Amino acid sequence: MNELTEIAQKLEAGDSQAVTAAIEQAITGQIPAATILNEGLIAGMNVIGRRFKAGEIFIPNVLIAARAMNAGIALLEPRLAADGIKPVGKLLIGTVQGDLHDIGKTLVNILFKGAGFEIIDLGVNVPAEKFLQAARAEKPDLIGMSALLTTTMLNMESCIRQLRASDVTATIIIGGAPTSQKFAAKINADLWAASAADGVELAKQAVA
Ligand code: B1M
Prior knowledge:
By secondary structure, this protein is α/β, with parallel strands linked by helices. It has two domains: about 5-80, Methyltransferase, Methionine Synthase (B12-binding Domains), Chain A, domain 1, CATH 1.10.1240; about 90-205, 3-Layer(aba) Sandwich (Rossmann fold), CATH 3.40.50. It has helices at about 5-10, 15-30, 35-55, 60-80, 105-115, 130-140, 150-165, 180-185, 195-205, and strands at about 90-95, 115-120, 140-145, 170-175, 190-195. CO-5-methoxybenzimidazolylcobamide (B1M) binds near residues 93, 100, 107, 149 and 196. CO-5-methoxybenzimidazolylcobamide binds near residues 100 and 193.
């Protein structure tokens, strides 16, 4: 097994120590940081995303893999920055105002980060003005909104209305259990994702 396959497999197993050890070995072997990221960490996280979507693994497995991913990224970050490697896109995300649910958003963040996106997470209970302010400051490629309550999904609508009336041009993606494709079309979102893994695929196409 080469170092990159080992990184991917140890990440899938959620073994942070083994992931960092294999990355150190790959660095010693002169493998470029971007290759380690793409063919090691991201390859492993793609498998996690696919298996989670297929119902073969569950939230705790994803969170454990994310911990290993973060340990690996921490090790690679200075090298990626030194090599001038840019993220594939920037996602600004938050759970909308009135809503404190963030487990789905955390999974979205993990899989997006795993796919090479930079994440700006505004947290939970995010009012429209905060989305707007942050979008102007950060200039993301995508703005993501999550809602878990039927009452707060309506806040997505006013949020999107305010963003559309502004100078912000980012692609807007929404998700969360009570939302749907039909709802997304009704409130003028660009994309709706049934799952974090679907969201990543749609986002990759949007920034391509
Ligand atoms: Co809440 N809660 N909760 N809760 N809670 C639900 C959502 C509920 C369905 C339970 C029920 O009654 N059966 C219900 C909503 C009913 C409704 O609106 N019709 C409910 C309620 C009523 C409430 C309170 C009002 C309860 C109370 O206080 N009386 C209260 C509200 C607080 C508030 O937000 N203001 C409340 C509180 C809580 C806890 C704090 C206890 C906790 C949240 C902890 C946390 O998030 N840190 C909690 C939980 C855990 C749940 C349940 C059990 C699980 C939600 C969850 O995390 N699912 C939920 C019942 C259930 O679903 N069985 C429930 C797992 C998560 C991975 O799924 O977020 O859908 P989900 O994300 C998916 C996809 O939707 C997608 O990707 C994810 C996975 O692939 N996705 C996106 C999500 N966001 C996306 C964004 C994207 C793309 C994809 O792009 C941007």
